[in-house]
Amino acid sequence: MEFTDEQIHRYSRHIILPEVGGKGQKKLLQAKVLIVGAGGLGCPVGYYLAAAGVGTIGIVDNDTIELSNLQRQIAHSTERIGMPKADSAKMTFEALNPDVMVHAVKERLNKDMIMDLIKDYDIVVDGSDNFPTRYLVNDACVMAGKPLVSGAILRFEGQVTTIIPREGHCYRCLFEEPPPPGLVPSCQEAGVLGALPGVIGALQAMEVLKLILGVGQPLKNQLLIYNALETNFRKVKVPKNPDCPVCSDHPRITELQDYEAEYCQMRF
Amino acid sequence: MEEIKPDRSINIKGLICPYTFVKSKLAIEEMEVGQVLEIILDYPEASRSIPKSMEDHGHRVLKVEKINETDWVILIRKERE
Q1: Is the minimum CB–CB distance between B23 and chain A shorter than 8 Å?
Q2: Which end of chain A has fewer CB within 10 Å, C or N?
Q3: Which CATH number characterizes residue B36's domain?
Q4: Integer Cα distance of A111 and A116 in angstroms
Q5: How many CB atoms lie within 10 A of CB A196?
Q6: How far apart are CA A96 and CA A76, in angstroms?
Q7: Which residues pair with A226 in a beta bridge?
Q8: Is residue B3 part of a domain?
Q9: Residue B26 and residue A9: Cβ atoms within 8 Å?
Q10: How far is A101 from chain B (nearest CA, A)?
């Protein structure tokens, strides 16, 4: 493909980077990324990926926009309250960059459709707000061999990790099973400072761009923890668990499962 | 001095920075290592910045020459992918 004059201008600050160039920009335009959640994390992830010219973005969310989302979910707006978040995100991302095709998936992920959905994408980003989805996405990505950039936030702290199935750890190597319902406070109960998902989402977007471009080192076998109050980034090593129930050579979990969604709805 | 015959020539007169370099870089990316790109330009700043940026990217500047009142010719040999 040849760049149009508009694309040369739009992506000029990428093209002049030795690590990107026209070749890297073409990789971005051909890449397909699925974002789980159009909330606090999904909004900045999708916004930056769209700006970067990631050509195909899928965004999964079955929620509609509420006023209380707008303190942090920057792809939406006051006049769109009540609109499905996936539709709003599609409008925002495509308005930012007409090179980008956004597929809005207005469903809650479940074990019966997730494999069919992720097969069309190169990379998956988890910006979900609940443990059932988090574990479902992890297991599906391990089984499908799809790189997964996972992010989570609460109060003033966030974390990011990049899962490259079989090469590195997975979410279950880190936390084998979801915590019991009620143990971890939701952000309805605990709150979240609005810019926090922006920080974590931007880190997730950066991990995705690096994976597409094949530059730098992904957060493989590592968990990055950000403490906003102390302005502190900490990296924790996460070795691959040789007895991991899903990603080891002898997995116990060989079929996807839908955990009961009895957790308090955490609207990150 | 032996005349160097470019493998490809681009005319970027009328363009300003950073698009002068963006266009030059896109052109050289499509060429083979060892080939020579000729760039004709008229933006004075770019006559200095393009050679510097090309060297930063690992390529070799063979010639920077003002050929008339307004225009420069730059020859760059692609040294690496």
Answers
A1: yes
A2: N
A3: 3.30.110.40
A4: 10
A5: 22
A6: 13
A7: A158, A233
A8: no
A9: no
A10: 24
How many whole angstroms separate alpha carbon A58 and alpha carbon A230?
A: 34
Nearest CA in chain B to A26: B26
Residue B65 placed within a domain: yes
Domain ranges within chain A, ordered by starting residue: 22-237
Per-residue pLDDT of A28-59, as tens digits, reads 999 999 999 999 999 999 999 999 999 999 99
Most B CBs within 10 Å: which of A16, A17, A29, as the mutation test of the B interface?
A16
Q: Does B26 touch chain A (CB under 8 A)?
A: yes
On the question of pLDDT at A253 being above 90, the answer is yes
How is B2-32 classified by DSSP, letter by letter?
PPP--SEEEE-TT--TTHHHHHHHHHHHTSP
Predicted pLDDT at B4: 85
CB contact under 8 A, B53 and A16: yes
> Hey, what's the torsion of the CAs at A204, A208, A101, A112, to 10 degrees?
-80
Tokens, residue B71:
């225009």
- Is B17 among the catalytic positions? yes
A16 and B18: CB-CB below 8 Å?
yes
**ipTM of the prediction greater than 0.90, yes or no:** no
Catalytic residue among B10, B17, B40, B64: B17
Partner residues linked to A60 by β-bridges: A36, A105
- At residue A231, what is the residue type? T
Under DSSP, the state recorded for A72 is: T
User: How near does any CA of chain B get to the CA of A52, in Å?
Assistant: 16
From chain A residues 13-42, the ones with a CB under 8 A of any chain B CB are 13, 15-16, 18, 21-23
In chain B, residues with a C-beta closer than 8 Å to the C-beta of A3 are: 26
- Which architecture, in CATH terms, is A22-237? 3-Layer(aba) Sandwich (3.40)
Domain span holding position B24: 8-77
Q: For residue A255, report the phi and psi dihedrals to the nearest 5 degrees.
A: -130, 150
Give tens-digit pLDDT for B10-64: 999 999 999 999 999 999 999 999 999 999 999 999 999 999 999 999 999 999 9
Q: How far is A92 from chain B, CA to nearest CA, in Å?
A: 28
What's residue A184's pLDDT? Answer: 73
